[in-house]
Amino acid sequence: MLRARTLRYYIGKRFFVMMLGALSVCMVLIFMIDMVELLRQSRSATTVTVGQLMWVGFLRIHQFTEVLIPFAVLVGSIGALMSLSRKSELAVMRAGGMSVWQFLRPGLTVAVLLGIFNVVVYNPLATRATEMANEQMSRLFGSETSFINSSAGNWLRQDGADGPSVITARTVTEQGLTLAGVTAFQYDSDGRFVAHIRAEKATLATGFWELQKATIAQPGRDLALHDTYKLKTYLDRERALDALGSVNTVSVFELPGVIAMAERSKLPVARFRVQYELLMSRPLLLVAMVLLAATVSLRSFRQGGIQTMVATGIIGGVGFFLLTEVSRQIGLAGLAPAALAIWLPVVIACLGSLTVLLHQEDG
């Protein structure tokens, strides 16, 4: 029993090291690409240092890491199984009476634990890091750039006591309650243009946006500067969340409350439901990646064709990710329940991989 436990620990450690190595390589590559973009875009900001950009890049990378984890588990599992096969360790295990299910169990355990860690620990940290990155970029770049965050280009039409207005912002933080790099177009109740407003920051209060360091241009009047300016709105916190909030800044523990709040306010909740189901399915998704890796990595090196099998596994993984993305978009569009759109491709991948493994091992 002690020897079996030691062997399982050895196999599990091999899986974990390979998965961590694949994830580290992906993170480094993404960080370098992001840094190149940040350095290119920061040429007009003379007060920004390389250290500050590196800190922003470090904060931003975590939202990409969550997407990369399943791919890293797939590549790491292929690498771990190929390493065991290349050194004939798998052949020795088979000769000792171990089945494929026995030496895959440590890898599956590592995948489940990694999935739970991703959901319970890493996701809240990643969402907080993303929000901090948005705040840092807002502070460093202000309204000088147009590349800040994926929220750039979001336009919101709202109504208020002074008439309707259209507002946009380059960064959105605090789930839509705080904006930076704000541009607003104010109209009167008859729909006539009244003012063009630019402000460094806007915070949603009850009945108005509080704009800081606002510049107001009105037809027939001189340019006016205000330290604070109130832009009237009927928008409340719930509708601001629906219009401007990002799922990347809402952790798994906050999502149930956000969904309940949106439902009470009769707002669309598809993107939050999809995100919640996506996180809940993460452990099973990582299990599917290990099973998929096993279908293409258990062949002996002496039989040849290893490169073809590995390429098949990578292509199959990419195809699976494309399938999950298509299914996710179907869920976001409301064409299928969020749980069905997220869980169905994962279950199909698990069952398909198990079928292939049963055929390979038991005929």
Description:
The protein has 363 residues and is an alpha+beta fold. 61% of the residues lie in helices and 15% in strands. The protein has ten helices and seven strands. The chain has helices at 2-41, 50-86, 89-95, 100-141, 237-244, 255-264, 270-280, 282-297, 306-332, 338-362; strands at residues 155-158, 165-168, 171-173, 178-187, 193-205, 208-217, 224-232. The protein is elongated and about 90 Å long.
Briefly say what this structure is.
This protein is an alpha+beta fold. The chain is built from ten helices and seven strands.
Low-confidence stretches: 143-153
Shape: elongated
Indicate the mean pLDDT. 82
What portion of residues is helical?
55-70%
Number of DSSP strands? Answer: 7
> What's the total helix number?
10
User: What is the domain tally?
Assistant: 2
Radius of gyration, whole Å:
26 Å
Strand content: 5-15%
Strand-pairing-aware structural class: alpha+beta
Largest sheet: 7 strands, antiparallel
Distance between the termini: 29 Å
Q: Helices and strands in order, then pairings?
A:
Elements: H1 2-41, H2 50-86, H3 89-95, H4 100-141, E1 155-158, E2 165-168, E3 171-173, E4 178-187, E5 193-205, E6 208-217, E7 224-232, H5 237-244, H6 255-264, H7 270-280, H8 282-297, H9 306-332, H10 338-362
Helix pairs in contact: 1-2, 1-4, 2-4, 2-8, 2-9, 4-8, 6-7, 7-10, 8-9, 8-10, 9-10
Search tags:
single chain; 363 residues; alpha+beta; 2 domains; 7-stranded antiparallel sheet; 10 helices; 7 strands; elongated
